[in-house]
Amino acid sequence: MGEFELIRRFFAEAACARTGQGLVLGIGDDCALLELAPGEQLAVSTDSLVAGVHFPDPCDPFLLAQRALACAASDLAAMGAAPLGFSLALTLPAASADWLQGFSAGLEKMAAACDLRLIGGDTTRGPLNINITVFGRLPAGQALLRSGARPGDLLCVGGCLGDAAGALPYVLGQRPAIDSQVESLLAHYWTPAPQLALGQALRGRASAAQDISDGLLGDCAHIASASDVALVVELERVPLSQALLAVEPIDTARRHALSGGDDYVLLFCLPPEQLDALLAEGWPVQVIGRVEAGEGVHLRDAAGRPLSVPAAGFQHFSR
Amino acid sequence: MGEFELIRRFFAEAACARTGQGLVLGIGDDCALLELAPGEQLAVSTDSLVAGVHFPDPCDPFLLAQRALACAASDLAAMGAAPLGFSLALTLPAASADWLQGFSAGLEKMAAACDLRLIGGDTTRGPLNINITVFGRLPAGQALLRSGARPGDLLCVGGCLGDAAGALPYVLGQRPAIDSQVESLLAHYWTPAPQLALGQALRGRASAAQDISDGLLGDCAHIASASDVALVVELERVPLSQALLAVEPIDTARRHALSGGDDYVLLFCLPPEQLDALLAEGWPVQVIGRVEAGEGVHLRDAAGRPLSVPAAGFQHFSR
Prior knowledge:
The structure is a homodimer. Chain A is α+β, with helices and mostly antiparallel strands.
């Protein structure tokens, strides 16, 4: 099967039919063509997942495709962007029809869940590497940046943390996946749900936002640095899932939540007067601390006493 | 050196300073932000280059970066788009400062030559894989598509073909690079010049266009299929460089020109009345054949007699 036939068979058919809503021209020419409504800006982010680094190899291609697209789409959520589309640059060792069947089905499932259309791509031979570039739309000037946090803001997250890190021993086969709690953790690892709707709801309300991909504390450091403020995290307010607490002691669960990574949950700063309305609308907003004058990230107990901060989040090349 | 430090050190400094002209926000947040002028569309294309497949490994990172960006930018030229920016997703086995120094210098050189700014990226550890997504701007409805060729049009290319294929034995070290002719071939392989200005000049004039990356005949087949026409190539009109003819007999040179690939020269169809003005303006337009009713790609000699068509262009997974 040639490269062109392969692309046509698995990806092009579904993608080409869906122009409209910002997509003028999809797969099949030298470039895709996008357009914006007057007053809109385009948000763009690119992410690569590498076999053996970001996921175990081999693994189920149906799950892998969902995870790859969800990780990339989470960056759109973090900017408050409305989803538009994505391109896929897929490097794979061989053109296996079975593998591609599973991968394209997973891609289609997550694309539908995120309301993202495949707009173009590239397929090459080599060690398995999945690169996805996502595109979203935003009213000009309303993007959620990392740089707007102000002393007095509340520090918030969009849900429980640490589940993906808690799933890792099961993902890697180091422990048997025995019950529904573990299944819930595995779902957070393989099929995270990018908080695209929450991100859009935070536009004009949150002062700063990003998604947690490298671990809570490491990602807090990015906001603290970009906004030139200190972020205070109260350890006991960091939300932990029942599933994580069912398989790990609380100290391990908290370590996963603070620096485990792969959460793809939004982290954001909120002027206090914005909180009630968001909660009344039913958004999953959990206050975990506050923004202060100063610098860096500070972990405290419920009485406000400082706790030592464990090692920073995941960094490639640093270990 | 951590991932974030690495990115900052080699890529972010040059990139961040250059907002404006469509780039609202560059490297450093969850997404980059682009904007378009009223009536503009955005052209997007993504390309991955894999070590050992698209380039020899090891090779000079200064040249490799130039080649990677030029290959991607050529897709913008093929649509007639004006360059805006690019994102880089770089997967590399180790964070070598020497390698990154060379790579970032090469990237900067080609970015300046193509008037493209680095708008964002991702850096991960794994087998060397360079993914570049390019962004360009176009007046709405003026993109050069593959589907507009009409019987009676002239079939044209923007320059000599086959040089990159002719360079391959020297790139791979199978022959010693001895003279300036070989250096010229090597330059076409490592630092092709995407025909961005020619592409923009062809807007409103060419009926169809694409860039030649997989070999002339294979790429002609894409236009023939998309436009539902036959393309006739006259073998003796396909332009060959003095450098290629200095190192190869004419039959080999022609084989390289017809199916060698990696040319990154524009292929386009031109209503005959457009030719004189383009030539008068000094554009490198070479007529190599014509568009006829029918289907497929047909190779003919100067007397119009059919010649057999050699194997199609480069396809991953097909060999």
